Amino acid sequence: MTSPCTCAGGPNFEIFEYEAPDQSPRPPRNSDVGGHHLAFYVEDLDEAVAHLRGRGVRVLGEPTASSGPSSGQRWVYFLTPWGMQLELVSFPAGKAYEKDAPVRLWQPELHAPSTR
Question: Is 0.70 surpassed by the pTM of this model?
């Protein structure tokens, strides 16, 4: 099964569900060797979570607010139908570290597609 996702004129992702007679049915945790997840930045986390839940997607809990240098960021995990973890993340007003940092990490507003 393939689930294509086009991200606002940016990257195109294909996420696959593989089937094999000897596969482990238990997905690895993100912290396990070989574990991973894919995060999608959204402007409005609450709206995005409501969108997923409205379509029957299993969202793992409620959005979590980060602290310390990442204060201002919120995130939540959700699952594909076969159990792969994906994440929604949002920090529309920036993160705490940015007010004193000479260099910022990835900034969604700098990578948004042109509207020209």
Answer: yes
